[in-house]
Amino acid sequence: MNLISASGIGIRLGGRSILQQVDIDLQQGEMLGLIGPNGAGKSTLLKILSGILQPDQGRLTFRGQPFSSHDRSTRARHISYLSQQGSAHWPITVRQLVALGRLPHLGPWQRPGERDRLAIEQAMQATDLLGLAARSVATLSGGEKARVLLARALAGEPAILLADEPVAALDPAHQLDVMTLLRRHCDAGGAVVVVLHDLHLAAHFCDRLQLLHQGMTLETGPATRVLSEANLQRAYGIGIRAGIPSVEQALALAWERRPAARHPDPAKAG
Amino acid sequence: MPEQRGRWLEGLLALLLATLFITSLFIGSNPLPLWQAAVDSLGQDPTVISLILTEVRLPRALIALFAGATLGLCGAAMQGLLRNPLASPGLVGSSSGAALGAVLMIYFGSGSWFQVPLGGILGSLGATLLVYLLAGRQAGSVTLILAGVAVNSLALAVISLLLNLAPSPYAVQEVVLWMLGSISDLSLQDFSILLPGTLLGWLLLVGTGRSLDALTLGEETARSMGVELTRLRWRIFIAVALAVGSAVSVTGSIGFIGLVVPHLMRPLVGFLPGRLLPLSALGGAILLLAADISVRLLPAGTDVKVGVITALVGAPFFLYLVIRSRRWQP
Fold first, then answer.
1. ipTM of the complex
2. Which of A31, A96, B13, B319 lies at a CB distance of 3.0 to 4.6 Å from A92, suitable for a disulfide?
3. Do B210 and A103 lie within an 8 Å CB cutoff?
4. Are A192 and A182 contacting, i.e. CB atoms less than 8 angstroms apart?
């Protein structure tokens, strides 16, 4: 069964049509990459899936039930949203920020229990943050901040993680780390929709890509089909340099994460 | 663990508050044999000391406690909601709007007891909404301060106009002195006027802590975490209007407590806005009681209003915050 299924999504914002007739499906264990040029509507679609925005047209279901049949807090327990320009408005500690991820699970008067503590601990371990737990988030680097925000989303133990450009501010090593974490979330039975600009990362890590262009789906399917020369030309206006025989070759990810003494391998950390 | 330190802190502050409350009953132009006064006031025939206790000292201490707690609590709630360390009832128009509403009712009302606090509540809500609309949702400190200055000036201008046109010089003097912010010469009846709106406002703020915590991550993320943002915003605006409007209509404008107290408490609870709410209420009550006691310790004959004292201490602190807040704002 589809975890999320949306059909015919359309939305106008500020008098401008942002999305028209977009369908999107997400299976359990699937990592779906949303790609497309700036202004294609990727972030807006993610906000609709997270319940932040209400679409003007279309039907949205979560686990086969209409979206509106779940209240906001129930949805928040199952769907976590990682925003593009995430930040903390108060200089709280890393552990406090990650712990905010448990809020959807707590009643107004309920104090965090053992299960909450465990989830927080696991999220911090997976994102390699235990050493920074007591640091104020105001003093973190861009890469550290991105990991803290991801840990917050993971701490809620959501079925679905919606991540809007989670690797935008990161160096290549941390990009691989974050993508690996998202991948592991899917392999552990969750599902991820991730907005990416890096087509190499998208092709390498995602099970399926959905290419948006001017508020509509241009193509969806495996990377080899979506990232065809014709599609890239049409959506981005870019071609593949002569001398490379195939799109796959052009988009092959040439990096791998090697354990370093300073920075333990996240695949082993969990 | 910060959790445990918080509980310990709350206990300590509650103890300090109780001490100040009792001290406040003692201190005045005549020292009061408190035990005797309490016993007398329970008896059939009131004595002079029991009358001083129940008619003068007790209302004054109670009003300081409730108004101070309201200002601290509402400051913390506003700062959490707007994610801005400079937001406070005085800055976002809640206090000046309440003063305007109350003055309007003093002038044009028929004199029923509920009209002045009602005017305060409505004026407070109106001015706060106006500042919020002017500044916009994502207001930085500068925009918020400018919007606050504009609305506060407008409210003061209208009050000045009313004073200007007032037929009786005595009425003018009375309103001006009330506006300075004072809790002397108030009765238990004044306290009962203050009480309903205050309690309703507090009640509305109870349980908003978690949502304010989530707002630390920004409005969109908070919504994705299950916070009904529009409802939360209205709830806090109405709560602040109810509590601050009722307090101001009795005490006049007592400034800076809502700004200073959350700031002093914030580092002690690790900066999370939710945990700040109860502590700021305690801190506000402590600060206003202490300020009121200090006013009474001044040499006899110098009638300094407590609002003047809080402004004298608070304004330099505000400047300090303006300078410091540059570090926090993105």
1. 0.89
2. A96
3. yes
4. yes
